[in-house]
Structures are given as structure tokens and as C-alpha cells.
Amino acid sequence: MDLAIYFEPVEYKFKKTIDDGAPLKLGDIIKSFIDKDKFPDIENVRIAILGVKEERNGAENEGCLDAPDVIRRFFYELYPGNYDIKIADLGNIIGGHTPKDTYFALANVVAELIKNKIVPVILGGTQDLTYANYRAYEQLGQIINIVAVDAGFDIGYKNDGIASKNYLNSIIMHQPSYLFNYANLGYQSYLVDNQAVELMGNLLFDVYRLGKVRENIEEVEPIVRNADMLSFDITAVRMSDAPGNKYALPNGFYGEEACQIARYAGISDKLTSIGFYEYNPTYDKNYQTASLISQIIWYFIDGFYNRKNDYPHLGKEDYLKYRVNLKDMKEEIIFYKSKKSDRWWMEVPCPVEVSNKYQRHYLVPCTYNDYKMALADDVPDRWWQVYQKLM
User: Number of folded domains in the chain?
Assistant: First the structure.
């Protein structure tokens, strides 16, 4: 596929470092689509940045389409970590005649990048683009897990077309379904009605209140480690840290916590795409939010270049295996601990007839606390939830 046909050059012009011996910034290192006749060569590229200037299905949040190049303005000025950067900035996807046309282009681009083992970092635009990101996995024939960092669930009750505030409904209702699990991080109870919370429970989805997540941010790691794609709504970050959003809220994650979540996403061997949405430069005093998003992306990249490549491969010697028998339960719970990273997984029994279909989902990321819970004769919630889905 010729990816160049989908893109227009980056509008922001980074001033290259010209002083001999001066430390290089990301803008010096990243292969960026600046000259319309010189599209970046993606051979050996591991991460691709792409902007999507789409806001037409946003909830009256005009100005989001300007976000990608404003974010670049701050991201390019950061210094890289101590690793060999292989990143390309492919520019901005050319907007379609309709939002559906833009979704089609984004889905094609993301699918092609993933095929080439390149992780797309999507700069929105409004969060309905998450639906297009999801459709890329349909092209790949891959059943996936989605994690959304969001103050709400973005699920609607009317079938009146896709929008940034109801995109999840389009994903859930899409047939054939390629969604195994959805997890929300940081929802705020007063922004979500009880009917929606009940629906999430009935669908066996994971939803975590803001306060619960902030009690122990380290518990987020196995949740994010289980994701194939992550959708980050900047509304999830409190207004004091991220004012650049029409719907900015007084409560939410601190900037440091947002960076930590992004790093967890980066170190996950399973995650293959990530997107950042709803940033609106119109409301961004002193470009504080653009600066924060650029740092969140930096932490994602830092995590990516510190991946351990220890997603469990049964039978290998890189794992310690633990078997736990629980009273009044037929199945034993098998745990795996990586010798490389000390991270834990647990195996959920899967019927033979669907084992090929769900082979990426019955090894569930967990923590040492889940292992201790099983030793105390208590079934971990993560295990039980996946067990119900597979059975």
C-alpha cells in the first residue's frame, strides 16, 4: 500500500539544531513528512506519528482539528531518552469529504502500519476516531481489548450516528464483533448514569472509578498490559493540569498519573496502537495542555523502548509456573511469573472449540496480589470475568 496518498505534510516547521555538538531533540531525529515530495521511508521504523484533523462528529468542540500540529510544536522540542529512536511522523491524514471517509482512511493506514509491526500514535481530533482505530483490527481479523482513559463511557442510547460522545456504542453494535473486552480507567460517577454502569457490568467490561484508580496507580499496569489499543481522552486529566478542552473538568488524573499510564501502555508487548483525543488549542492557556500531551507521548515512547518482550509463550523457560487449587472449584488457577520483568499472568481455561479464536485472551495479565488472593482461596475478579466470557 502507498501510504503517501493518505497524507499531507506537517504544517509545523521545527527549527533543526545546527550547532555542532549540541544535543539533538526529537525534532532533529524523527523522520517527518515536511516536503510534499519526500514521504518518509518507514523501513525499520517502529513508531509512526499521524495527525487526524477531524472534528465534524465532535460534541460542539470546534478547534480540535488544530491539535496535531500544536502538539508537535512541543513534542519536537523534547530530548529523547537513552535509546535508538526509530520514529517517523507521517503528517496529517487528508480529511475526507465526510467523517466516514476520514475513518476509512485512518483504518486503512493503521491496519497497514500494524501489519508492518509499526505502532501508530494517533493525534486527534475528536474521540470518535477511536471507532476508526478499532475498524483497523477488523481488517486484520484480530479480536482485541480496548482500554479508554476517560471521565465517562461515551455510550449513547439513540441510534443517531456516531459521535465523540457515543462512539463506544458503534463499536459494541458493530457486526461482526472484534471486541473481546473494553476497560475504562478513571470514570467519574457523577458523569455516568447507573444504567450505563449496569450495562458495562452486563457486558462483563471493566470499569474503574477515578478514586479507585488513584488509590494505587500501579494496579493500572495489568489492565493496560491487556490492551491491544488505548484511547486517551484528555478530558480525563483535571482542568488545572489540562485546560485545553471545552469540557475540561475540575477533577481527574494529575499530569504525572497520565504520564505513568502512558508508560504502562508503552511497556506492554501486546499494545499495538494508541490515540490522544479532544485536545482543543482554543482553550489552552499558555499551551499548557499541548506541553503535557507531548510529555505523555514521550513517556509512552520511553515505555516502548523499554519493552521486555516477555508476553507469555507457554513452555519456555523464562517463566516460573505456579498452580493454585481452590476449595469448591474444579479448575486450578495457573500463574506465570516472568523472570525478565517479574510481571504476572494467569491462565483461564478455554474450551477447545474456541481456543484458536481466543488464544490471545486466556492468558490474563495480573499482579502478585491476585496470586495471594488465590492462595487465600478467593477467585481473583480478573480470572472470573474472563472465565465467564470464554465459557
Answer: 2
